């Protein structure tokens, strides 16, 4: 077997091993410049591997990779299907965009002696998120979840504001509770099936019927994963974490962490427990429907009242998660398509917005000073000083609203189709009304940035560096591209939804 064939056969392992081995290497180098170079190489390698896996799955079907030559279900299996390949592509793409941005961003937001540690934690977080997505073993989902969570706590704490430590601690407490619920649920499933392999577990649960421990496992996993994905009202950790973390960290987490948690929820609901139990025998769809609506309206309403732009879009993320879980509650191909598409589309749009806000924060800071919070009183007349940044934030906001031509419109369209398909016309009105709330908070930024005069002495142009603008605008371009050409996103999501609803 040639080297190329050997690498191709081991791509699932390399997807996780690449950033995982790069992390201790960066720590040993102890040079910020070399740390950046290694992290950049690892992130681009992860993206290349994700693209290769995507192509392999498209041509050959699901990939089963046995770790240590122990065949499943006895050994640990890495399993890549269309859904996991889609999420791997999102996570690795965001890493490849955020790392080039990070070099300029952290130079202003993180003390110089912590730059190497930042790259170590970023690589561990990336490895954890990729591992959660690719593993076919329930306990390894928990292990990789802890790897990503522990590194995330450190990344959030890097923020210069003391409140970053409080936000990190709050997330640590709530994240630990969620992880405890998840491991209890996995333990109960192991008790009832005697296996940790997800595919094998699903077969044994289907053959063994429903019992109280299985229902308890479903309840524990639902609550634990919902806390990780910040489903209302378990979202309390998210606004503070996104607001006070460094800009690059906020952008990466907003685009990936909650999306991977949604992936885990979909995986357990449709692959392990089965659609019949979750959506037909239990009232979970109704519960998820009302929690999603509360997220869409309450979080959007709170966003309107925020004075900090970063916190405003943090609450917007809670609302957008509501759209994802609303799609799940329909238990239909169109609804599930909307959820899966929004994993990708919202990741692009919100990642771009937070990257632009990071550039904005540096732009309004005095030379050599710690970047201030992006409060609205500091953003008056911003469009005159930072036209590209301001316009980019508005474009990202259009996607959150769901304006036709943007990726966000695709999600709203399929949610409306799912609502009409189920005969729930009142939900169509609810989706449209919640979008109007998004118009309100985006307009707040437009009004301040475009229709107010800048403070005296701050009229000069101070646009963000190109190293920060280019990654953000690449994501914005993708947001509009996938709003016009949906062959990749909707085509893939529809295929995945059909397979999951059929129980494949």
Descriptive account of the structure:
This protein has 504 residues and is mainly alpha-helical. It has a domain at 284-504. 78% of the residues lie in helices and 2% in strands. It is built from 21 helices and two strands. The chain has helices spanning 3-9, 11-29, 32-60, 82-109, 115-134, 138-157, 163-193, 198-208, 212-229, 237-244, 247-273, 275-280, 284-304, 309-329, 333-364, 382-385, 387-401, 407-421, 425-451, 466-484, 489-501; strands at 63-66, 77-80. It has a two-stranded antiparallel ribbon with strand order 1-2. It is globular, with a radius of gyration of 22 Å. The two termini are 33 Å apart. The mean pLDDT is 87.
What's the layout of helices and strands?
Layout: H1 3-9, H2 11-29, H3 32-60, E1 63-66, E2 77-80, H4 82-109, H5 115-134, H6 138-157, H7 163-193, H8 198-208, H9 212-229, H10 237-244, H11 247-273, H12 275-280, H13 284-304, H14 309-329, H15 333-364, H16 382-385, H17 387-401, H18 407-421, H19 425-451, H20 466-484, H21 489-501
Antiparallel strand pairs: 1-2
Helix pairs in contact: 2-3, 2-5, 3-4, 3-5, 4-5, 4-11, 4-15, 4-20, 5-6, 5-11, 6-7, 6-11, 7-8, 7-9, 7-10, 8-11, 9-11, 10-11, 10-14, 11-14, 11-15, 13-14, 13-19, 14-15, 15-17, 15-18, 15-20, 15-21, 17-19, 17-20, 18-19, 18-20
The structural class is mainly alpha
Percent of residues in helical segments? Answer: over 70%
First-residue to last-residue Cα separation: 33 Å
Find the count of extended strands (DSSP E, 2+ residues): 2
How are the strands of the largest sheet arranged? 1-2
């Amino acid at each position: 077997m040639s080297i190329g064939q050997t690498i191709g056969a081991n791509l699932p392992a390399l997807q996780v091993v690449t950033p995982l081995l790069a992390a201790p290497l960066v720590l040993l180098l102890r040079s910020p410049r070399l740390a950046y170079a290694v992290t950049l190489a690892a992130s681009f390698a992860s993206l290349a591997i994700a693209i290769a896996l995507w192509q392999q799955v498209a041509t050959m079907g699901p990939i089963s990779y046995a770790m240590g030559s122990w065949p499943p279900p006895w050994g640990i299996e890495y399993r890549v299907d269309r859904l996991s390949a889609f999420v791997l592509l999102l996570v690795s793409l965001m890493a490849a965009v955020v790392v080039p941005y990070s070099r300029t961003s952290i130079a202003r937001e993180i003390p110089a002696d912590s730059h190497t540690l930042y790259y170590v934690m970023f690589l561990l977080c990336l490895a954890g998120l990729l591992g959660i997505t690719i593993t076919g073993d329930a306990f390894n989902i928990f292990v990789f979840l802890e790897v990503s969570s522990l590194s995330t706590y450190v990344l959030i704490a890097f923020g210069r504001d003391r409140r970053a430590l409080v936000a990190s601690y709050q997330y640590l407490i709530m994240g630990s509770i969620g992880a405890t619920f998840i491991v209890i649920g996995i333990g109960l499933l192991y008790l009832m099936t005697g296996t940790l392999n997800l595919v094998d577990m699903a077969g044994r649960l289907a053959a063994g019927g429903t019992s109280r421990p299985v229902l308890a496992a479903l309840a524990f996993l639902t609550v634990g994963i919902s806390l990780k994905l910040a489903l209302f009202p378990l979202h309390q950790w998210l606004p503070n974490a996104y607001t006070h973390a460094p800009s690059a960290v906020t952008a990466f987490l907003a685009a990936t962490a909650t999306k991977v948690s949604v992936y885990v929820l979909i995986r357990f609901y449709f692959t392990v427990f089965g659609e019949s139990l979750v959506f037909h025998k239990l009232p979970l769809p109704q519960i998820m429907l009302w929690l999603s609506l509360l997220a869409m309206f309450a979080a959007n309403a709170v966003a309107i009242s925020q004075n900090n732009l970063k916190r405003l879009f943090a609450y917007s993320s809670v609302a957008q998660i509501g759209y994802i879980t609303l799609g799940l509650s329909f238990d239909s191909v169109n609804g599930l398509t909307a959820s899966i598409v929004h994993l990708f589309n919202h990741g692009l749009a919100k990642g771009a917005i937070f990257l632009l806000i990071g550039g904005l924060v540096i732009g309004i800071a005095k030379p050599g000073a710690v970047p201030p919070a992006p409060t609205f009183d500091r953003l008056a007349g911003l469009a005159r000083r930072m036209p590209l940044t301001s316009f980019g934030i508005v474009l990202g906001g259009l996607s959150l609203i769901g304006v036709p031509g943007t990726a966000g419109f695709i999600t709203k369209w399929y949610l409306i189709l799912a609502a009409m398909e189920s005969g729930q016309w009142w939900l169509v009105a609810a989706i449209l009304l919640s979008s109007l709330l998004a118009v309100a908070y985006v307009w707040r930024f437009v009004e301040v940035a475009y229709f107010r005069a800048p403070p005296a002495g701050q009229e000069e142009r101070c646009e963000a560096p190109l190293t920060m603008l280019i990654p953000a605008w690449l994501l914005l371009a993708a947001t509009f591209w996938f709003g016009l050409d949906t062959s990749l996103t909707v085509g893939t999501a529809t295929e995945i939804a059909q397979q999951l609803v059929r129980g494949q």
